[in-house]
Specification:
Elements lengths: L2 H21 L13 H5 L11 H12 L21 H12 L11 H17 L15 E5 L2 H20 L9 H13 E6 L4 H10 L2 E5 L11 H13 L3 E8 L11 H11 L9 E5 L10 H7 L9 E5 H4 L7 E5 L2 H8 L9 H5 L18 H36 L4 E8 L2 E6 L8 H17 L6 E5 L2 E7 L7 H20 L1
Parallel strand pairs: 2-3, 2-4, 4-5, 5-6
Antiparallel strand pairs: 1-7, 6-7, 8-9, 9-11, 10-11
Helix pairs in contact: 4-15, 5-15, 6-8, 6-13, 9-10, 15-17, 16-17
The structure holds pyridoxal-5'-phosphate (PLP).
């Protein structure tokens, strides 16, 4: 493809992308293809001769789009959003053109420096305590990871390293057998803590690291949040079993119900265990993968008391969920970047360079698990500049308000629906109301499941489900950029009609 052909192909591609967004509401939300559909449509080997762009592009509509579930569809109320927007797409275009494996500053200074700048912008927008800024008092800073799962794994690696450094006797010589023995013994006792509503990525990180994992049960009466008492009991139990907690994931906006752990209570319980800043303290990672986006609004900063997380060690949120940047843009902040560098810096002669040796630059390869990295800050920069803080606040508030309107509509039909949690960060979790007082849990679960299946089968909206204390429940989220009030009203209408039918039996 030469430049002239690229120009023509890019023009038709942009036209098609615009048409895609404009015709989205007319499509079914979820792809209806059968497993293996694509193999039947494509040849079994790559073409010997290159093909023309129009031939390739035709197959996007014919073969690919039927297998796409439309995460930007206004009727997409499942999971959490996975955002995109025009400025973000433009960022990807430039990033693809300026392709490089920008692991060290010298590999493309702009890639590293823009990332540092925009993550400082973001930290300020979200009102994170200054310790998470690259210019803050504790040598903190942010780095873009591929996902919240990668972020929690990275945090856990750094936390393990920090804990071992602080607790294995310093007089054991580095590299000695005695030190290795002491480290291995300690590792066998170390445990990562989370809650029963923490995202599965925390457990997966522990699995990958081969360390113990304990989930503290969170209860409905506490709003499904980790409390001081719950954590204190777990710490006591660990101690009694000879285990050493070194890591805790707390969540701002759990996946199932968008609950927020009690940060003040967590800090108090931890201070009774090992006070902040003392050797062997528990590293606290704040997982705000979805709801962290809402911190752009001062009222959310206040309600969540986000300033309290200055006591904790790391924070992560996905701009690619609810902040209009497309996947992947997981923004991970640490209070002291040295914790990452000490755990993840492995030298190899081929990567030596004067700038790194001078110690004046950031080499993000030392803040992450992979070596190479893309120019992801560009799309963040474009989105922040195109929308501005006010534009993003407006969008978040609009989608939160739609969540409130949705919950209000369910409350108005309390003969049909029971809200279990929410609305919280544009997420409401509900089930079918009891048909009669005597309906068993199993009967109510079966009826709610019937409603859920029937609604999704229609193709107009997509909702997902969860299970809370044995109760099957439906989750409906209103955070997608294209969703407007009329779409939420339509979702309510569908739910009411189907629920009435299910109730009639
Ligand atoms: N944490 C929370 C609270 C989530 O809701 C999710 C996914 O929805 C994740 C972590 C994992 O996100 P990722 O796909 O970025 O790993």
């Amino acid at each position: 493809m030469d430049a002239a052909e690229f120009k023509e192909a890019a023009t038709t591609t942009i036209d098609e992308i615009i048409a895609y967004f404009e015709t989205l509401p007319a499509r079914d939300v979820v792809s209806r293809v059968e497993p293996g559909y694509l193999r039947k449509l494509l040849p079994s080997t790559a073409p010997d001769e290159g093909e023309s762009w129009p031939a390739i592009q035709r197959d996007v509509e014919a073969a690919i789009l039927p297998g796409i579930t439309h995460w930007s569809h206004p009727g997409f109320h499942a999971f959490f959003p996975c955002a995109t927007s025009y400025p973000s797409i433009l960022g990807e275009l430039y990033s693809a053109a300026l392709s490089g494996a920008c692991f060290n500053w010298v590999c493309s200074p702009a890639v590293t420096e823009l990332e540092t700048v925009v993550l400082d912008w973001l930290a300020r927008m979200l009102a994170l305590p200054p310790c998470f800024l690259s210019t803050g008092p504790t040598r903190g800073g942010g780095v873009i990871q591929g996902s919240a799962s990668e972020a929690v794994l990275t945090a856990m690696v750094a936390a393990r390293d920090k804990y071992l450094r602080e607790t294995v006797p310093a007089d054991l010589l580095e590299g000695s057998d005695a030190r290795e023995e002491a480290v291995m013994l300690k590792r066998s006792r170390m445990v990562a803590l989370a809650t029963t509503l923490t995202h599965s990525s925390a457990k997966k990180a522990a699995l990958i690291l081969g360390c113990r994992f304990r989930a503290v049960r969170v209860r409905e009466e506490d709003g499904y949040a980790l409390t001081r008492e719950g954590l204190a009991a777990a710490l006591t139990e660990c101690r009694a079993q000879g285990l050493e907690p070194f890591f805790l994931t707390v969540t701002l906006g759990t996946t199932d119900v968008c609950s927020v752990d009690d940060f003040a209570g967590v800090a108090e319980a931890l201070d009774e265990h090992v006070p902040a800043g003392q050797p062997g303290e528990v590293w606290v990672h704040v997982d705000a993968a979805y709801a962290g986006a809402a911190l752009v609004c001062p009222e959310v900063q206040e309600a969540t008391r986000i300033g309290l997380i200055g006591r904790f060690h790391s924070f992560d949120m996905n701009m690619h969920k609810w902040l209009l940047v497309n996947f992947d843009a997981s923004c991970f902040f640490v209070r002291d970047r040295e914790w990452l560098v000490q755990a993840l810096s492995v030298n190899q002669a081929v990567y030596d360079n004067k700038a790194s040796d001078g110690g004046l630059v950031t080499d993000y390869r030392e803040w992450q698990i992979p070596l190479g990295r893309r120019f992801r800050s560009l799309k963040i920069w474009f989105v922040l500049r195109s929308y501005g803080v006010k534009g993003l606040q407006e969008y978040i508030r609009r989608t939160i308000k739609m969540g409130e309107d949705f919950a209000e509509a369910l409350r108005a039909r309390s003969d049909l629906f029971d809200i279990i949690t929410g609305p919280s960060f544009a997420l409401t979790v509900f089930r079918l109301a009891a048909k009669s007082e005597g309906a068993s849990l199993e009967e109510r679960n079966a009826l709610t499941k019937k409603l859920y299946d029937a609604v999704n089968a229609m193709g107009k909206i997509w909702v997902t489900s969860t299970e809370l204390d044995g109760r099957f429940a439906i989750r409906l989220m209103t955070g997608v950029r294209t969703t407007q009030k009329e779409h939420v009203d339509a979702a309510v209408k569908i739910l009411v009609e189907v629920a009435e039918e299910v109730m009639r039996g």
